[in-house]
Amino acid sequence: MIKHTLRAAGRVTSPGLRCFSGTPGGEIIEDVFERAGSTHLTQQASLYVHWPYCLRRCSYCNFNKYIPRSNNNHIMTECLQQETETLLQLSQVSCITSVFFGGGTPSLAQPSTISAVLETVSRHANLSDKAEVTLEVNPTPVGMSKLEDFCHAGVNRFSIGVQSLQDEDLKILGRDHSSHQALQTIEEARRLCPGRVSVDVMFGRPKQSVESWEKELSDLLRVCDDHVSLYQLTLERGTQLFKQVQSSEMTVPADDVTAEMYQCARRSLHQHGFQQYEVSNFARHNAVSEHNMSYWKGRQYIGVGPGAHGRFVPLGEGSVIREARTQTLEPDVWILEVQQRGHGTRRRIHLSHLDFLEEALVMGMRMTEGITHKHWQLFCPQLSLNEVFGMSIDVQEFLQSEQLILDDRGLRCSWDGLALLDSMLPSLLLELETQILQRPQSDHQADAQTEKTIHPR
Fold first, then answer.
1. Boundary (domain end) residue, out of 272, 295, 318
2. Where does the UniProt entry say this protein principally localizes (predicted)?
3. CB-based burial label for 413 (10 Å; 0-12, 13-18, 19+)
4. Which of 26, 169, 305, 401 gets the most CB atoms within 10 Å of its CB?
């Protein structure tokens, strides 16, 4: 069973390139990256901004989040601006294609913080007025009351953490909203951003059955907008819910039950006009999450804020190799580092060619369209998809069982295979590694992975 591993969600624009239709939803006509070629892979990036604070910690959550001890909104705003500026200058990107404010609970931030970060972006890179700017919202009365102000600040898409429409389940999950408040927030968000509201809903919850899940989905589909993200509850070690299940205080549905819940949701969403475009994401009327698409297509992204992750080439340092970067986790330490040296990057890993391709494979296969031949050639012109996977015994078995499809379009999962992706990935990754390492040593010697840990000065 696939477990959702990425939160979040780019409009793609660049000087001289047009890729938007004139529709209110800003539908993408074509993939400008594949049309323009790999040159633009380093000229453009999406931006993820992490707001680390929550009012309380949910029972299932192990994300990088903290309960604020005092109101430091002004300092956080200044530091988010400063780190954004530093990393934009380091990346030398000319265009930010989308911005995603995640957390934590970013709807606890002031709208002025959102506008300040967006203004900083606009001073250092092109940010189209049509670019997707998403904010995660906790559907509490406080969160709902600020939606209009967030829109004035530049947000044009909301991702609402509904999680459940069952009040008892919300209490078990430690959520601080009710089902009624969630429905009110969806209604207000749809009024402000029609067609650009996503709802997150979780299945595999304690005491949940397939029947109750079906009814809950039916209720949700009567009120939701054009995007739904499904999350399977995972028991993360160290969380309150994990301890409750370990001690038999709580029970969660068995794997075969959660698998049926997933398939039930796919069928129900399809019947309501939603197209599945990724393992956990469904959209109708082309209301896909463009920010997340940039992740799944292996594009650059810059991570700002405590614990944020990024993947980009630091051209400002003269490098031509993409790096995986992680910012310092603890907000107080991160603030000090940003104030001292302009950023809080704690860890940098230079990605070898194999690392890069492995990420492209894992992320690309999450999409229902999979990896096209043209897209793969952007990252690996030396070896085609057929050359990498066509002769593999394991892949042949997946093809014969109709779990995988390898044809003139590219490599992708079938409808049934998408639910089994986790079980197929180890074989795909092993075959990729084997084929890449069989290349002459000189071809990948310069790609050797190096790791550098950054300490505050």
1. 295
2. mitochondrion
3. buried
4. 305
